[in-house]
């Protein structure tokens, strides 16, 4: 099946710093989402981005589907950005689409 | 919009009991609901996919007789962990996808932490 690898696995930042998280996938996909899982376990949908670039405040994401990767940019990081970031890809197979989650990046933003 | 409610948030129970977790789409009709399991410091793994009015489709390695899934309406799916044991302790998360548009993203509930003593 399709493999989804994220890097780096862990990241420690000082508040105010910028960072780039990467998501590589092993086969063509129909869609890609980025999530933030906060310390309480809640999954927050950040971007639905099968291709191109999107921005939402301090966050932006770019997916280059032909090269099988996506990047999540976090600018001016805040302590509330801490948590785990997952990308998830979707391949259409039959009648139901499935999300396959990546390995995750654990981000800790220190004051 | 696109709110998914999951209950309960926390469950602690004795080994051998059965636990039911509910997943509701509050403001949209969900043709398909998904159940995931997440062990500590790991990623989310899809357990099963349920479509309203039909039997769930389980991923390889997931025991369908242990994890009973019912999707009786377009707004409710339930996961019952039967005869739970300590190794079933995990974080269970549901998601729902709106009908008739395969380009709609999945919307996730807040998860249920299950601890079996």
Description:
The complex is a heterodimer of chains A (111) and B (117). Chain A has 111 residues and is mainly beta. Chain A has no helices and eleven strands. In chain A, the strands form two sheets. In chain A, strands 2, 4, 5, 9, 10 and 11 form a six-stranded mixed β-sheet that branches. In chain A, a hairpin with a 4-residue loop joins strand 7 and strand 8 (69-74). Chain A is globular, with a radius of gyration of 14 Å. Chain B starts with a strand and ends with a strand. In chain B, strand 7 and strand 8 form a beta hairpin. Chain B has strands at residues 4-7, 10-13, 19-25, 30-38, 45-51, 57-58, 67-73, 76-81, 90-98, 107-108, 112-116. In chain B, strands 2, 4, 5, 6, 9, 10 and 11 form a seven-stranded mixed β-sheet that branches. In chain B, strands 1-3-8-7 form a four-stranded antiparallel β-sheet, with no helix packed on it. The model of chain B has no long low-confidence stretch (mean pLDDT 91). With 117 residues, chain B is mostly beta strands. Classes of the chains: A mainly beta (111), B mainly beta (117). Chains A and B meet through strand 4, strand 5, strand 9 and strand 10 of A and strand 4, strand 5, strand 9 and strand 10 of B.
């Amino acid at each position: 099946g399709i493999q989804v690898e994220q890097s780096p696995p862990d990241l420690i930042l000082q508040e105010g710093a910028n960072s780039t998280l990467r998501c590589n996938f092993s086969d063509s996909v129909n869609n890609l989402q980025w999530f933030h899982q906060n310390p309480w376990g809640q999954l927050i949908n950040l971007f639905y981005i099968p291709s191109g670039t999107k921005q939402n405040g301090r966050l932006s994401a770019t997916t280059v589907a032909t090269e099988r990767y996506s990047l999540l940019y976090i600018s001016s990081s805040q302590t509330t950005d801490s948590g785990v970031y997952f990308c998830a890809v979707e391949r259409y197979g039959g009648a139901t689409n499935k999300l396959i989650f990546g390995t995750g990046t654990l981000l800790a933003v220190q004051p | 919009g696109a709110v998914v409610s999951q209950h309960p948030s926390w469950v602690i129970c004795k080994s051998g009991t059965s636990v039911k977790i509910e997943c509701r789409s509050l403001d949209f009709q969900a043709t398909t609901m998904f159940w995931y399991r997440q062990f500590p410091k790991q990623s989310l793994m899809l357990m099963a996919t349920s479509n309203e009015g039909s039997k769930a489709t389980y991923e390889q390695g997931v025991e369908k007789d242990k994890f009973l899934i019912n999707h009786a309406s377009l707004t409710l799916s339930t996961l019952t962990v039967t005869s739970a044991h300590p190794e079933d302790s995990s974080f269970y998360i549901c998601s729902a996808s709106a009908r008739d548009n395969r380009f709609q993203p999945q919307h996730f509930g807040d998860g249920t932490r299950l601890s079996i003593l």
